[in-house]
Amino acid sequence: MSTRSVSVLGLGPMGQSMVKAFLEAGVEVTVWNRSTAKVDAMVALGAKRAETVAEALDANEVSVLSLTHYDAMYDVLGQAVDHLPGKVIANLSSDSPEKARAGAKWVRERGAEFFSGGVMSAGDNIAHPASYIFYSGPKAVFDAHADLLRPLSPQEYLGADDGLAQVFYQALLVIFHPWLLAFDQATAVISKSGHNIAQFVPFAVRASEAFPYFMEQFSVANQNGGWADLASLKMMDAGAQHIIDASEEVGVDAAFSHLAQSFWRKAIAATEAAGKPVSTYELMRGENS
């Protein structure tokens, strides 16, 4: 059996990108998906077709899963549990850390090795310079197959905890999702105010260059309980109100900013009640609430 061969189960946009990356690197790929149209598209590029999950597992030592969530893994691999012993499952699907740990246990109980991954990519563009993949699970298992998976994206192995890749992956999405909503709100304010979004964007990019500084500063603060100062918290509350006013004056939904303001106000109330600064970081940790 070739060490430069792999099976990919799940051909959504990310799974298709993985197949293309493997093929471009000269890796032999066997593919399986519930809908055959996506399989046909990958076969046209040079992949091999697996008619069943069992056939996909049998084709190679390593199978990469790119599914919607971990529950789908049970549905898919459950069709061929007798074909799991001796195989290696690399689940690069998104889900919670605990679901990743439970999934790892389930796979190992059925005789296969397992490690997990979280794909940090620019959309489904795993070849983008900013793309990389978090991995976690037994280091010996990951190391044995790291070279095979190298065509996908740069690798960041985090540790033996099966859920660790998802801890880091989901934590980064915690930052990304609000940014998406904030950018929509910001550009809606520009547009509804009668101005050009394209003129605004360079300034948004320029402002983002300060983000690393703030992350470094707040990471130090959060390692020491979080940043808080009553006068500054009140300034953030007032600033949030200005954002809300600017948005709602032109008919833009400011629900996201109302939510942000609610955290500043909770921190103000907690600070005044405690007689000492209480940070939003502490509140999110469930402390002083």
Please, could you describe this protein's structure?
It contains twelve helices and eight strands. With 289 residues, the protein is an alpha/beta fold. The protein folds into two domains: 5-160, Rossmann fold, CATH 3.40.50; 196-285, no CATH class. It has an eight-stranded mixed sheet, sandwiched between helices. Helix 5 (97-109) links the parallel strand 5 and strand 6.
Draw up the topology in text.
Layout (H helix, E strand, L loop, with lengths): L4 E5 L3 H12 L3 E5 L3 H10 L2 E2 L3 H7 L2 E4 L4 H8 L10 E4 L5 H13 L3 E8 L11 E5 L2 H11 L5 E5 L4 H29 L4 H12 L2 H12 L7 H20 L5 H20 L5 H5 L5
Parallel strand pairs: 1-2, 1-4, 2-3, 4-5, 5-6, 7-8
Antiparallel strand pairs: 6-7
Helix pairs in contact: 10-11
Quickly list its features.
about 290 residues; alpha/beta; Rossmann fold; eight-stranded mixed β-sheet; 8 strands
